């Protein structure tokens, strides 16, 4: 198998996005993004096409992190229990989710080890060696690795798995303000990434009871899926000195004092692929945003017996021109009906198709078809590079607008939680006084979870949706994955 996948003729598959859960599993299977037949539940095999999408996402993440002064590191997978136990709150959060390694060969290990569920406890003992002076700060690192969590809930490809392809940035700063600046930078990176993936997102400061184990506060990055649930794509954490005290990460100030560093982390995972699948796909299959599509353009020559050679020649010329211009291009010259080829590449979500038939060659143009709305446009051969730039841009816009509309049309502002009965499912924005009991009541009424506080508006002036007390805090509730 290669990135093109199984290219034999295939019976048309029925896909119906209205049955979202079934549709999601089918589209992943038939488009060939991963193979779930590996004999460990929740550990799927990345197939070439799916892995290429993930690698392209990773390359954008690397560009962003390298471009903002982070250094890429790669830490060991195993963490000795002695280090893992140092930060008590953190351990409590992961206790039920870690895999243990207790034997080496025939010997029981003196110190059992965990497979990293995340890397704080692997990195921070080393950070305490690396950070010596204020001149070592800020220390900005990241890694892209696999992490392991023993999920007991129902697993789902890319969304809930036990071996997770994971991105994690870890930074150390001289003071709280500099750590806050880092969080601002993380959110700017998220904005640019969301633009490339055509996925609008919510940032919500998680309530105390839902923050990351060991964090001072957590900002959740959530997107809205077509089944009316939110999917957490990533999170950003302010640790203050919660880890640097137990792990003894200190620096010498210009005045000669020794102080603990302030730390942040920023994490995202293969859920980004799950969001692309879920949000953009339709009843024909995937639609991959151009910036992360393994093939941005597929060229389909319409081969007639008598004209085969000159049509192929033209198609190859187009392919070479587009590759020269920097596009990722595939040509499908198989000897099967064009309809089958269209079907195959639509299922795999290639954003643009170029058709070249005998009439096109005679009239000096090709037909360019967008995957999003299947709109066709004829473009002169010599203008194809510009045409492809424009059409890919249009695909991006359409994907982003559709996703934004989906989120917007499912967002409801209510004054009291029980009004939400009338507006239905989706995202519910409501005031909250800050009392946990009020939120618990609202969660029960709505049958949803609190995503957290909207820190973006800053101008809310209303009442708690439960007790009616005046408040400036607006919060969002949703059903979550
Ligand atoms: Zn209240």
**Broad CATH class of the largest domain:** Alpha Beta
Question: How many structural units, i.e. domains?
Answer: 3
Question: What's the gyration radius in Å?
Answer: 25 Å
Which ligands accompany this protein?
A: zinc ion
Number of strands: 25
- Basic shape: globular
Q: What is the overall number of helices?
A: 13
The CATH homology group name of the largest domain: Bira Bifunctional Protein, Domain 2
Q: Name the beta content range.
A: 25-35%
CATH domain topology of the largest domain:
BirA Bifunctional Protein, domain 2
User: How far do the termini sit from each other?
Assistant: 32 Å
Sheet with the most strands, sense and barrel status = 11 strands, mixed
Summarize model confidence as the mean pLDDT. 94
Q: Uncertain runs with pLDDT below 50, 5 residues or more? A: none
* Alpha-beta content class: alpha+beta
CATH architecture type of the largest domain: 2-Layer Sandwich
Considering the chains and any ligands shown, give keywords for the structure.
globular; Translation Initiation Factor IF3; five-stranded mixed β-sheet; 481 residues; BirA Bifunctional Protein, domain 2; Rossmann fold; 13 helices
Your description of this structure?
By secondary structure, this protein is of the alpha+beta class. Helices cover 33% and strands 27% of the residues. The strands form 6 sheets. Strands 3, 7, 8, 9, 10, 11, 14, 20, 21, 22 and 25 form an 11-stranded mixed sheet that branches. The protein has a 5-stranded mixed sheet with strand order 16-15-17-18-19, sandwiched between helices. β15, α8 (308-324) and β16 form a beta-alpha-beta unit. It binds zinc ion.
């Amino acid at each position: 198998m290669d990135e093109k996948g199984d290219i034999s003729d295939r019976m048309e598959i029925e896909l119906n996005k209205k049955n979202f859960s079934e549709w999601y599993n089918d589209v992943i299977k038939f488009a060939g993004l991963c193979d779930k037949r590996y004999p460990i539940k929740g550990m799927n095999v990345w197939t070439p096409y799916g892995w290429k999408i993930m690698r392209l996402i990773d390359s954008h993440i690397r560009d962003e992190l390298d471009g903002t002064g982070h250094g890429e590191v790669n830490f060991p997978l195993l963490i000795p229990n002695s280090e893992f136990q140092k930060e008590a709150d953190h351990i409590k959060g992961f206790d039920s989710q870690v895999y243990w390694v207790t034997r080496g060969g025939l010997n029981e290990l003196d110190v059992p080890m965990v497979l990293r569920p995340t890397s704080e406890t692997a990195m921070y003992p080393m950070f305490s060696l690396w950070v010596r002076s204020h001149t070592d700060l800020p220390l900005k690192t990241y890694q892209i690795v696999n992490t392991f969590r023993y999920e007991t809930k129902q697993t789902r490809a890319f969304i809930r798995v036990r071996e997770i392809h994971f991105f994690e940035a870890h930074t150390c700063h001289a003071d709280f303000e500099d750590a806050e600046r880092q969080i601002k930078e993380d959110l700017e990176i998220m904005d640019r990434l969301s633009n490339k993936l055509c996925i609008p997102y919510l940032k919500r400061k998680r309530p105390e009871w839902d923050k990351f184990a060991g964090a001072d506060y957590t900002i959740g990055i959530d997107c809205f899926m077509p089944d009316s649930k939110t999917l957490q794509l990533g999170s950003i954490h302010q640790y203050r000195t919660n880890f640097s005290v137990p792990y003894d990460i200190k620096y010498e100030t210009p005045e000669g004092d020794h102080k603990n560093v302030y730390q942040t982390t920023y994490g995202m995972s293969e859920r980004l692929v799950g969001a692309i699948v879920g949000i953009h796909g339709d009843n024909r299959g995937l639609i991959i945003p151009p910036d992360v599509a393994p093939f941005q353009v597929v060229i389909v020559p319409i081969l007639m017996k008598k004209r085969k050679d000159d049509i192929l020649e033209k198609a190859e010329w187009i392919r070479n021109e587009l590759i020269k211009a920097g596009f990722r291009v595939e040509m499908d010259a198989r000897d099967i009906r064009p309809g089958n080829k269209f079907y195959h590449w639509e299922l795999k979500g290639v954003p643009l198709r170029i058709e070249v038939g005998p009439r096109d060659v005679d009239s000096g143009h090709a037909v360019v078809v967008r995957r999003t709305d299947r709109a066709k446009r004829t473009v002169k051969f010599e203008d194809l590079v510009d045409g492809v730039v424009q059409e890919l841009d249009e695909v991006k816009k359409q994907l982003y607008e559709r996703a934004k509309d989906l989120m917007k049309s499912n967002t409801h502002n209510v004054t009291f939680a029980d009004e939400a009965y009338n507006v239905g499912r989706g995202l519910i924005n409501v005031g909250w006084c800050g009392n946990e009991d009020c939120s618990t009541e609202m969660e029960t009424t709505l049958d949803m979870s609190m995503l957290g506080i909207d820190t973006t508006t800053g101008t809310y002036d209303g009442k708690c949706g439960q007790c009616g007390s005046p408040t400036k805090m607006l919060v969002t509730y949703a059903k979550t994955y």
